[in-house]
């Protein structure tokens, strides 16, 4: 049998124990690890066609997997002005002014990553930018990708001149007391009113942006991701790149199930399960139970301090419960976006009802995504029900503050803000905790995600105090959150997440041990090599 890949002079890190294996080399064939041993033994397995890499003592971990990512929509949404570094309105205005100067007459301006904290105590609306965007159609995506600001000209072109009603209960064209739009659009249904009249890139441009984004992810050390959407051409793009040998990540894709999904659509989602190619597969369904706290569209057990975040994304939450039961009986795992405490509780109740009605032996690994604030009595239920806790710690790092002066914390108040991203409590309660970025909401480099889970400080200023340091994960837990736990969440612990014979040859090679590198320095640790299915997807020039 051919041996396409041999790695020598390596330190092979076992995330299950935190120790190094006694072996110093490995061989891969057929996409699996086929041999472990010393350098001389493994070198003998190579032939003229083998890629042999001397790692010079570098550390090999199982491939790092992002537990929540949006590759296709991320590649689209991160095109245009990057506003993520703007911390106040003056910086936003300056960035917009620079963007407008480069526009052709009548052209649209797009921006992304806008943090509502830039508005301070002012409402999030387009009024502060009216003079800069006078006559310019513009869409400014807020960092959570659940809302955007549309300029007055963009609203005019879209024919949006007042409130609307949507199937998505938390979607809204935000209006003032005179029913005039403020420019703020909440949730996809409202945003699409403007997006559908804005110029769109060609299909080829979209595919090329996706391919470039995936290559950058591989260079950052990612070997896989749990993709939480399959909208538009997503699956076709994955298939095309896979067939061309240009898909550098292994992707597990969960299509959306939105309010209004009828029985035929549910059956179609069930029938779609398992479809895919060599490196991608449709598995699971993504559902939304609420929106976001920053926009007042989460579902909280008590209203936020603005009187908002009072209801679910589904107009009738019991319809969601019924649909989860249907997926459960069909063996389809669900991944539900649930940020607020009421949303998380309802998801757990729905899973418990599905399990009870299906009887013993019907375990399906359902997931809750985000879990930004929950009370004590919710924690234990994840382990009891076998529900995966999928969290994104860098959201806490970069969009909230230890002193609770940020928009998220102000909306919640001290008691609930003190329960921010309870990663350690979830872990200690026995839950399987999976880490991810939710890119494009936060940066995708996995070492940054792992570092943030450990230090919980703003990545732009690591001298600031951590938000909830008691919720920090250990270095080993952070690594497990992107290896063994990611494999378990996908039901693949028998073939992924470990460096072991017969396991997938999805590997990340780092310049040093991620368990001993300081949390604040981890994002800068060089990624020397990435391999997926036994093929090299990134190789540093030093090797």
TrEMBL record:
Domain Amidohydrolase, by residue range, is 52-537
UniProt cross-references to SUPFAM superfamilies, sorted A to Z? Composite domain of metallo-dependent hydrolases, Metallo-dependent hydrolases
Q: Which InterPro entries match?
A: Amidohydro_3, Metal-dep_hydrolase_composite, Metal_Hydrolase, YtcJ-like
Protein name as annotated:
Amidohydrolase
